[in-house]
Amino acid sequence: MSVFLFHDLELHYERSGEGDFALVFIHGLGGNSESWKYQREFFRQNYDIITVDRFGHGRSSSDIDPVFAARTDAEAIDALMRSVIQKPFFAVGHSFASAILPEMIKLENPLLKGVVFVDCVYQGCDDIIDTRVTFGSTMLEYDDERLKIKADAWYSELIGPAEPEQTDLILSSFQRTDYRWMFHAVAGCREYNEKYPAAITPIIESLPILVCEAEHGTGDSFRKSWINHFKDAHYYLFDNAHHFFFITESEKFNRILEDFITQHTP
């Protein structure tokens, strides 16, 4: 992996493939750059593929406030794309990257050519934020032993039915994550949203948006969907799928993502 130094923080990233356009893949809580293994393998023949370890995950710096780490993630990835990669790119984010992608849009990088929300919860509604804060706070009340049991059960439910190889890929990073760091990020989402409101994310006519959701994930409630904000976005619901459909249904997801990118590149 390569290292990008951002304000004394190390952002580890992997770069592979070739192409005039880059795809930057941003994992959710408990993931790392390897979460996008199947996308890297599929797209690297035609695109410059960038996968990152978010701060607090993988090999990247973890000495950072979990509540506001997502904004720093956005700034660091934006700086990486401007100063190192220097190619037009699409940003693809999963799950808790819902706090990163809007901030990347707000940074108005002219190289950003499209954004893809992969089962990302829209934090523009008070009741959604309340639910997340309650969940994160409840998890933090457990002692370390009980927290591990509860966290493992929660993540297994998110995964749903999956092949052993797929489950191993998802859990390989999660089981090395600092659970308390992770749930502090969840419990602090109201504080984060007050400083960086999702609802004021600009809607830029020239910036295409794709929203993909799982029926047994974000797609189970319209209020959680980014389609509330980006009403003209491309939308796809993965029927009977769970939160990690980009892994468990990677071939289907890759085709949908490829079609979206092809529509919006010369």
CATH homologous superfamily identity: Alpha/Beta hydrolase fold, catalytic domain
Tally the helices: 10
- Mean of residue pLDDT values: 96
Residue share in helix: 25-40%
Strand order of the largest sheet: 1-2-4-3-5-6-7-8
Strand content: 15-25%
List low-pLDDT spans: none
Q: Summarize the main sheet.
A: 8 strands, mixed
What's the alpha carbon Rg, rounded to whole Å? 17 Å
- The assigned CATH architecture is 3-Layer(aba) Sandwich
Derived structural class: alpha/beta
Instruction: Work out the count of structural domains.
Output: 1
Topology as a string of helices (H) and strands (E): EEEHEHEHEHHHHHEEHH
CATH class (first level) name:
Alpha Beta
**CATH topology term:** Rossmann fold
Distance between the termini: 30 Å
Query: What is the 3D form?
Result: globular
**How many strands appear in the DSSP assignment?**
8
Word description of this protein:
With about 270 residues, the protein is of the alpha/beta class. It has a single domain (about 1-265), classed as Rossmann fold (3-Layer(aba) Sandwich), CATH 3.40.50. It contains 10 helices and 8 strands. It has helices at about 35-45, 70-85, 100-105, 125-140, 145-160, 165-175, 180-185, 190-195, 245-250, 250-265; strands at about 1-5, 10-15, 20-25, 50, 90-95, 110-120, 210-215, 235-240. Strands 1-2-4-3-5-6-7-8 form an 8-stranded mixed β-sheet. Strand 1 (about 1-5) and strand 2 form a beta hairpin. The longest helix is centred in the first third of the chain and has 17 residues, at about 70-85. The chain is globular, with a radius of gyration of 17 Å. The two termini are about 30 Å apart. The mean pLDDT is about 95.
